[in-house]
Amino acid sequence: MSYEFDFKAAQAYDAFFEKGGARHRLDLEIKLISSLISPIPGKRLLDIGCGTGLSLEPFVDLGMNLTGIDPSAYMLDKAAERLGHRVDLHRGTAEDLPFDDNSFDTALLFFSLEFSNRPAKAIEEACRVAREQVVIGVHNRYAPQNMARRLKGFFFPDMYSHAHFFSVWELKIMMNSILGKVPVKWRTTVQFPFLSGSLISKLESLRFIQWSYWGSFIGMRIKPVPKFRTRPLVLKTRNHKINEPAAGLALGFRIKE
Fold first, then answer.
1. Separation CA 224–CA 222 (nearest Å)
2. pLDDT, tens only, 42-92
3. Backbone angle region of 49, left / alpha / beta, with phi > 0 → left and psi within -120 to 50 → alpha
4. Prediction pTM value
5. How do residues 92-147 score in pLDDT, each as one tens digit?
6. Please, what is the Cα angle at 20 between 15 and 26, to 5 degrees?
């Protein structure tokens, strides 16, 4: 990732979400992400760029097998304080994940793709390690609130000054270029970023509201093409057998393990 949170930024990150309005928006964002993930006990979830663990905390008591990875040691320290031993934490980058293919059922990129200098590579890696789905949560570049954040960042640098915001169209184009035509589902939330309360939360939950292109937060779910390992196929003939690795591959056999 191109931006790594230092100690001061890690402290400011958690403090920011303790504010009333910010906490309300975070709750809406996590609710949308959770609906896209559809948590099931026993399923393996990897949070790529897990930060201080805010995005993992809602899944802790759902019986899932949780793993988080982040390049910042300071963010991981705070995640360990928040989550304890309930989550397996690793230090590493989204562009070079230290996990085998299909190690997880779901890979999550929640507020982390914006800070990658190679977002396409980060998505490729997420699809490599995820067996069932990849879920992405990002700031919408065309939402009024985020336009204001970008403008403010020119004069008063903050963590958003280091972020690249995305649009629904931009994400779809990137997915197609990486994966081809794969199933993609998206919605947005935080349509009313400066309002809160039970009525606003109910409005934000309406599907026809979430199909807006202008919500401050985009949630997207991708179903990667299934990946298979290949192994040599033993072919017996009358006089001998063929057991060369190239032989099985040359004949085009693909065997699911």
1. 6
2. 999 999 999 999 999 999 999 999 999 999 999 999 999 999 999 999 999
3. left
4. 0.84
5. 999 999 999 999 999 999 999 999 999 999 999 999 999 999 999 999 999 998 88
6. 75
Q: Are 109 and 135 in contact (CB under 8 A)?
A: yes
Single-letter residue type at 50? C
pLDDT confidence band for 18 (50 / 70 / 90): confident
pLDDT of 126: 97
What's the pLDDT tens digit per position in 29-54? 999 999 999 999 999 999 999 999 99
Show the DSSP H helices in 166-218 as ranges. 168-179, 198-204, 207-210
Q: Residue 93: left if φ>0, alpha if ψ -120 to 50, beta else—which one?
A: beta
Exposure b/e, 74-106, CB count within 10 A at least 16 = b:
bbbebbeebbeeebebeeebbbebebeebbbbb
Does residue 235 contact residue 241 with C-beta atoms inside 8 Å?
A: yes
3-state secondary structure of 171: helix
In whole angstroms, what is the distance from residue 60 CA to residue 66 CA?
7
CA distance linking residue 228 with residue 79, whole number of Å: 34
- The rounded distance, in Å, linking the Cα atoms of 106 and 117 is 23
Eight-state DSSP code of residue 225: P
Distance CA 165, CA 115 (A): 9
Residues 65, 67: Cα–Cα separation, whole Å: 7
Distance CA 95, CA 11 (A): 25
Task: Give residue 154's identity as a one-letter amino acid code.
Answer: F
C-alpha torsion 97→101→105→106, nearest 10: 30
C-alpha 103/C-alpha 55 separation (Å) is 20
